[in-house]
Design brief:
By secondary structure, this protein is an alpha/beta fold. It has two domains: 2-172, Rossmann fold, CATH 3.40.50; 175-297, N-(1-d-carboxylethyl)-l-norvaline Dehydrogenase, domain 2 (Orthogonal Bundle). It is built from ten helices and twelve strands. The strands form two sheets. Strands 5-2-1-6-7-8-11-12 form an eight-stranded mixed beta sheet, with helices on both faces. A four-stranded mixed beta sheet has the order 4-3-10-9, with helices on one face. β3 (39-42) and β4 form a beta hairpin. Keywords: NADP, Oxidoreductase, Pantothenate biosynthesis. Pfam families: ApbA, ApbA_C. It catalyses: (R)-pantoate + NADP(+) = 2-dehydropantoate + NADPH + H(+). Residues 4-145 form the Ketopantoate reductase N-terminal domain. Catalyzes the NADPH-dependent reduction of ketopantoate into pantoic acid.
Length: 298
């Protein structure tokens, strides 16, 4: 049985803690000590998440396998805080919406530390601080970022993830998958946040023009960045996720509802910044970026 540490107690972290604990010893790392157990609501039943709890201050031994499912804007701080506690040959798995600069993260790794990225369409929301409700199944994709991770990716996939996570896919080109996930985020998150609607509502014709414009800009910027995405394929992917997660509230919609900072800077904001780097514009992404930022400040 492998030891896996998960940083934080967000919805995605608790969902994966519950899944991974089927065949691994899982420990949740929280910012402050807690004696209260965590629970998951699934298929109408509530049960305790079978995971130990600790804090970084209490962590004594080096962490070998670490899942870091934090918001994109929290990643740099999370890595600074967790790095002293990682073993010299740690497997580090990052998961968040939008895009972050993983090059900056990789530069601070030790030579034998492996960096992976995981993306999922599995849905969850937190009705209270210690409970997650599983709101929908979805594909989880996993892949390597640095050279060390490429050497280990099959064994990490087979031993840690495959026995517990379904459906699951090992992808050879994580950069392309991250862009594909970004397109899904762009199509769903800002509009669902602004309209405070469930994902399925975005499939109505009312939103079709905006979604087309958003993804057309994203695919063009991806092409300028050397990633060849087909607009038709990304539209189909986004609408399929809307269908599969029709009853879900996106993470951005939940953040706006609960007056939390969103990840829009790493989603629409990322497209706008990359466009500027190439001397072009992305007006629809910029408009939604600013609208969501206004909602954040309200």
């Amino acid at each position: 049985m492998n030891d896996i540490h998960i940083l934080g107690k967000g919805a995605v972290g608790l969902l994966f803690a519950n899944r991974l604990a089927q065949h691994n010893a899982v420990t949740l790392i929280t910012r402050t000590p807690t004696s209260a157990p965590f629970h998951i609501i699934e298929n109408g039943f509530t049960k305790q998440v079978p995971a130990r709890r600790t804090t970084l201050a209490s962590q004594k031994s080096g962490i070998t396998n670490c899942l870091i499912p934090v918001k994109a804007y929290q990643l740099s701080q999370a890595m600074r805080e967790i790095s002293p506690h990682l073993s010299d040959n740690a497997n580090i798995i990052i998961s968040h919406n939008g895009m972050s600069d993983l090059t900056e993260v990789a530069q601070h790794l030790k030579p034998d530390q492996a960096l992976f990225f995981l993306t999922t369409s599995m849905g969850g929301m937190k009705p209270d601080a210690n409970t997650v409700k599983h709101t929908g199944a979805g594909l989880t994709q996993f892949g390597a970022y640095n050279f060390v991770a490429k050497q280990r990716q099959q064994s990490v996939f087979d031993e840690l993830l495959k026995p517990c996570i379904h459906p699951l896919e090992l992808v050879p080109n994580m950069s392309e998958v991250r862009w594909q996930k970004l397109c899904v985020n762009i199509a769903i998150n800002p509009l669902s946040a602004l309209h405070q609607c469930k994902n399925g509502k975005l499939r109505t014709p009312t939103h079709a023009r905006q979604i087309l414009a958003l993804l057309n800009e994203a695919c063009h910027i991806a092409w300028l960045e050397g990633v060849n995405l087909k607009l038709s394929a990304e539209l189909e992917r986004a609408y399929n996720v809307m269908k599969l997660t029709a009853k879900n509230n996106s993470s951005m919609a939940q953040d706006i509802k609960h007056r939390r900072r969103t990840e829009v800077d790493a989603i629409c904001g990322f497209i706008v910044k990359q466009a500027a780097k190439h001397g072009v514009s992305a007006p629809e992404n910029e408009r939604l970026w600013q609208l969501v930022k206004q909602k954040e400040r309200a």
